Amino acid sequence: MAFFDKVGRAFSATSQSAIQKTRELADIARLSGQITENNERINRLYAEIGEMYCKAHPTDAEPAYARHVGAVLQMQRQNEEWNDQIQVLRGMTKCPQCGEYVAGNAPFCTACGCRLLPETAVVCPGCGAVIDGGALFCENCGTRLPERPSEGQHTQEVCHLCGTVLEEGTLFCPNCGARRQTPEEKSDEAAADGGADMPREEPPSYQGAGDPADVVPTGEKSGDMPPQESERTVPGRRCPRCGAEQTEDVIFCANCGAMLY
Questions:
Q1: 8 Å CB contact between 130 and 141
Q2: C-alpha 247: how far from its chain's center?
Q3: Angle of helix 63-89 relative to helix 2-56, nearest 10 degrees?
Q4: Largest CA distance in the chain
Q5: Close Cβ partners of 95 (under 8 Å, ≥ 6 residues apart)
Q6: Which of 223, 218, 208 is nearest to 169 (CA)?
Q7: Where would I find the H helices in the chain?
Q8: Which of the pair, 126 or 57, is modelled with greater confidence?
Q9: How confident is the model at residue 107 (pLDDT cuts 50, 70, 90)?
Q10: Which of 37-46, 135-144, 148-157, 197-206 shows the lowest mean pLDDT across its residues?
Q11: 3-state SS, residue 157
Q12: What is the pTM of this model?
């Protein structure tokens, strides 16, 4: 019996020692994990402190930190330049007034309303390329460009978005569907562009109310001027909304703005 008691005490001591060792290893692992988490927090705080210092002292950093601050600012400028290149490759352009990126052929900035295209620029109805000057065809896809009135001639009005010549009495652009500007809207746009005094043809007066399809020019309603059929009008092609005859290459009805396709 004494032998078995001795063996039992030895086994119990070994078991207790193993349990204690396991507990110690668990405590070590727990404390090590806490140290690692604190080190990560310290590194994040270091980064925040460095960022705050760079923003507060971009040009007057202390000599001990000036080299590091300069390196950070240089890399930030490189990132901005590379981002500009990415936006250009995506067909975007930066607004000179607010710095926001908009589509390369956008006539106005969607963030601040700044005019982006020159007055002579035309947006190609075929591919969307912006063509400046007096070109007759798009240099990118060959599509014939909308005609613009010559200098000093203002008998024709053009769409304020795409530059397409608007025929007399139309309410909507047949190329992009934009609604024809009112005299008040054109005056506001001229004032926003710097107040340039450019005489424009006044749109014809209309009578009636309700849907634009029901609006009839006063000249046609009174019978003073018989309606002139366009040379390119396709017989039988009419607007599904207002019934007006349409030319062969328009996308939107010039009378009511409805999409024809």
A1: no
A2: 32
A3: 80
A4: 135
A5: 101, 102, 109, 111, 112, 114, 116
A6: 218
A7: 2-56, 63-89, 183-192, 218-222
A8: 57
A9: confident
A10: 197-206
A11: strand
A12: 0.38
CA-CA distance, 74 to 128, in Å (whole number)?
A: 37
Judge residue 118's burial from the number of C-beta atoms within 10 Å of its C-beta, 0-12 exposed, 13-18 middle, 19 or more buried.
Answer: exposed
Mean pLDDT is lowest, of 36-50, 75-89, 189-203, for 189-203
What is the per-residue pLDDT across 158-201, written as a single tens digit (0 to 9) for each?
787 777 777 777 778 877 778 888 777 777 766 665 544 444 44
Q: Are 125 and 162 in contact (CB under 8 A)?
A: yes
Residue 159: name the closest of 127, 211, 102, 117 by CA: 117
User: Other C-beta atoms within 10 Å of 122: how many?
Assistant: 22
Q: Which residue has the tokens 């207790």?
A: 16
Count of C-beta atoms within a 10 Å radius of residue 144:
13
Q: Give the whole-angstrom CA distance, residue 40 versus residue 45.
A: 9
Separation of alpha carbons 247 and 232, rounded Å: 5
Arithmetic mean of pLDDT over the chain: 74
Whether the CB-CB separation of 178 and 159 falls below 8 Å is answered with yes
First to last CA, the chain: 105
